[in-house]
Amino acid sequence: MAPLLCAFPSRRRCPPRAGQTRTYRRPRPPGTRRAAGPATAEMAATAGGEPGEPSPEEFVYSEEDFVLQAAGWGDPGSAPSRFDRVLLAGWSDRMERGLFRYRLGALPTRVLPGAVRLVAQLNEQRSAERRPPQPVRSLRDPFDPAAFNFTRLRPAELLFRLRRAGGPEPLLVAINASPLERGHVLLLPEPARRLPQALTAPALRGALEAALLSAHPGFRVGFNGLGGGASVNHLHLHGLYLDRPLPLEEAPAEPLGPRLALLRAGPAPAFLFFAAGPAALEPVSRAVCRAAEHLGAAGLACNVLATRGDPPAGPGGGRGLRVLLWARRPLFGPKAGEPFAVALCELAGLLPLPAEPLYRDITEEQALSAIRQHLLPEPELLHLGGELARLLER
Prior knowledge:
Blueprint: E1 12-13, E2 24-25, E3 33-34, H1 39-46, E4 57-61, H2 82-96, E5 109-111, E6 119-122, H3 124-129, E7 158-164, E8 171-175, E9 185-189, H4 201-213, E10 219-224, E11 237-241, E12 254-257, E13 260-263, E14 270-275, H5 281-297, E15 301-309, E16 320-328, H6 344-348, E17 350-353, H7 356-361, H8 364-372, H9 378-393
Helix pairs in contact: 4-5
């Protein structure tokens, strides 16, 4: 079985251009190509470098590259796709080159006893070494060019530009320098436009297509909104490999309308959308973003997670992509006494914990209490579900 992680070949010497000093570049990984024309200088400058620096390779795909049936959980890494090989090779290369804030090794992991089966994971380095989250004052904070943003990434932190053949603007794929898991990346829609952290349908569709490009059943994509755990107010999504199934992948949901259901599996109820195949990605992306805009107008924050899973009715109808939208009370700044921050991973049932005593001693009851204090009361959640169902029928 070929391993998922591989290293790039050693560096080779490239002849300098006229007027430039000699630079050294790594060979392009299989499955990518050099971005042509003026985009090279533009993307290098966007990433915080200077024109003439190496730009990210271009990963061009078509619908034929979508993996409609991912590998099973019995051997999730048995047949990596072209996307998996390129992403994980580039990610591993950057780890070896010391471009992350810490070296990520095997993380202690345990399942908390209880009905929900929350997965606790000890990641002390992330808590100590990550960049402090930006202060957020409201759900509609504008982009602040003086604060850290993704135009300041070093060119070496960029893995590739993900572009559908004949499609719209690409997603820039970059390492998350403070990773939760192996292969944790940022999906950046047109960072040069300097958009705030408000989800758009084109950005979500690009991320959902990325999910279908992976053959690993645990590759998930997600979004943290302002007031919902976002640490940078510059439009981005996350992609990461989680090496275990989650109950929310197959649990049945309660129908709220033709295009919306309420999923109660896991630590927090979520509104569920479902894309049975590639043709459904665009309408589902639009529907999720309309719902997220409605939450924002009501003063609520949101989180989004997309994972491979069964139709809303449960197993038996053919797997596709489940897209979960959580509505929550916004939180601006850390909350005193909170054992851990609550964002999309925690809402999905994965708890990255910052300290060994907390990891060792936390119970399911304590974790659920910390998560659910951010959620809506049941009557308010059901009322909101009715509003969203009517909104999506128009």
